[in-house]
Request: fold
Amino acid sequence: MQGRGKNQRGVAALAVAVAAIAAALGLAACGGDTVGGGSDTEATTAKGGPASGSLTISNWPGYIDPGPKGTVAEFEKETGVDVDYIEDINSNDGFFGKLQPQLEQGESGGRSVFVVADYMAKQMHDLGYLQEIDHGDLPTVFANLAPDLESPDFDPERKFSVPWQGGMTGIWVDTAKAPDIRSVNDLFDPKYKGKVTMLDELRETPALVMLGEGVDPAQASADQWLDAIDKLGDAASSGQIRRFTGNEYTEDLTAGNIVAAIGWSGDASLIENENAEWRMPAEGCTRWMENMVIPVGAPNTPAALSWMNFVYRPNVAVDITEYVEYISPVQGVKELLEKRGSELAKSEIVFPTEEFTRDCTGQITPPELERVNEAWQDVLTG
Amino acid sequence: MSLRQRLVPYGLLGPGLLWLVVFFVVPMYFMGELALRSGSLTTGYTFDWAWSNFPDSLSGHTEQIGRSFLYAGTATVLALLIAYPLAYAIAFRAGRFKLLLLFAVIAPFFTTYLIRTIAWKTILSDSSPMVSVLQTLALVPPDGRVLATSGAVIAGLTYNFLPFMVLPLYANLERLDLRLIEAAKDLYSSSRQAFLKVTLPLTMPGIVAGVLLTFIPAFGDYINAQILGGTQQAMVGNVIQSLYLNQRDYPEAAALSFLMMGLILAVVIVYIRFAGTGAFMGDEDEEMA
Reply:
């Protein structure tokens, strides 16, 4: 009797489960046939106007002067806009991967501004995930933008991107422990086995390894990219490379776990180690620029545009530069720093001369991206 | 039974069932459907019964799958070895400190998982006192390290999932009928025999529950490998993350997730058969029979 009761209940439960799956299938059938592929509609233009309400901005960690006298607070005070400034970007690919399903639906997760690298801005634009910008709404930006940034290859008319900060990727060295590291090739010296980290970005680490071998990443074939990736894979499995990191290399340098790392030029404020020094590799660096963009579905675009104008005022931009120590796209910052008597005005890292960056290359996207990236990801998940 | 009486159990099942359908069956369906699509981000992913995603997702990733078994298995065994004496002591020897000790087991959970794991990075960093002690004891070579090794990942997994082992064991030991142990001793069994023949079999339900609660999440974990591991410690969770976020190969990521679910299910079924369904269901009558 007991057994029969159990069986009946089992059958009923199964029936309910089948019905539920059938219902789910029915639901799904209403959906489209294709996921992804970008939107086919014309790009919209971000609406301008007086700023009010609230504004959500996504940026990388440590990329703005914080606190009650920081840039965000000043903007809030002046405009009355309530800003939610979140530091939730740790890698271009990771951020894109997280948001892509929403962007595909025309949603930005409530964000009105992101900060992403040139190639990522282009990729988002090509997929129809960004709104275009009317220069008429951005008078302060285009009055103060450095002339060499007015017409980049990826966005010649600056239709969808406004530079935020730029920088260089080279080598961070603990000068007390490894004073002689001057080239990316030195990072492969067995003397420093397990004491070296590299960035997990495809367009940085393999590109720098190629430069070290005398190959120009901009001209390199897919096979040359794969050769560099192989070299990195071997160094990873032999234990030469301790980890592949995002921003976390700054923690390893602070804790003294490593003697050198491939890293970003402006991260001095994140590294608490007085012997840490950013060095231009003997063979050159990669240079990059990151941009503010307005995604599809962004709420309150007038406030977003007003934010862009605000951070392009030289007296605001100088505060940001003083804190982040990256390359500012705003003209007049150097003069203001000199007036304040700041050492940064003389820094080649903040104001690189053409001579200093002579051998540097831009952020290059490799040919046969999918195949090269797969090989790179295989190295990262060794 | 009246109709109403017969319907009551289904009514009681309703909320749970609805939960399962909305948060398990429907997502599973979408994931299964995604796993059978092909294409790329630029062309879009089209549903075309692409079964090849399943073998493709395994190729080149068997090492990480093996590693996940090794790490999660080792962490589970370590957690059991640590948790059993701990739960035993709390249940029988703690006296008035019982609640305090239980609180001490749960207290770290008031901090988020991520912060607890990052804290271990500081504890295990190369120049930390902890590592010097291990070097003095010759457990770590003089120029060796702990952070960014398999040992660090296993230690992190063991630490993070320990309460999942302690709590079911404690709940089980707590309601153990001590008269049974007394009876065993009356019948001239040694303490050791009484433990092996009485206590251990009676706590099998707690052991089985603890092992499952530890092993399953530890197998899919990627945080410990990412934060405490180096270049050769990636687990299958890290591979799925890379496929999903960095390569944006959604179909292959979904296929691999499905295969891992199947694999875990198979392992759990074998394990429960081996450890006895009675023990799993907490059916002590069956256990005694």
Remarks:
- Chain A touches chain B through 46 residues (CB under 8 Å).
